[in-house]
Task: structure prediction
Amino acid sequence: METYPFSALLGRMKYITRWSLMRNGRAESLSEHTADTALIAHMLCLIAQNCTGTGAGIRPDTVATAALYHDGPEILTGDMPTPVKYKNDSLRTAYKAVEAQSARAIASLLPKELAATGEAYLTGAVLSDAERRLLKAADRLSALIKCMEECQSGNREFEAALAQQRQALADMHCPEADFFMQHMLPCYSQNLDELTRGRF
Result:
């Protein structure tokens, strides 16, 4: 009987730790990050459709699903630290090629009838440019929230990263991310009682 290890391999995202060059107060797995990114990406799509008026053609469910797969290639490549990944054009191009090869390799672990679809989700090719932009914003917002949580717990290690993520999001000029940062991001600093008091 032939077996297909695609899903089992993706399940190993929980063993990959992000922010490997930083002292973390609480470790964050790749699996945790992709789930957070998917939730935020779906919300950004809904904001685009209902609040900013820029959501024509945006598919929230497809974007959220792509977010769940977007870091899948890191199962084989590991989580490359951002300062290394984006240090210069040569490294950025080389890493993109490695990511693409990793996506193809992982997709090849599916039945042949599913391999093209799996690769399209792993690479983001399933998305339009507008959808890909929202996924990128969600990815950055997830990183920003991690930095906020670390700083809030007294870990100054993440102060520079927090500023960098805020600047990167500002530079995106993404109205959906701006809406999220204005109306939703402040709630991430609240405790459970503050989040729920008078709301239930």
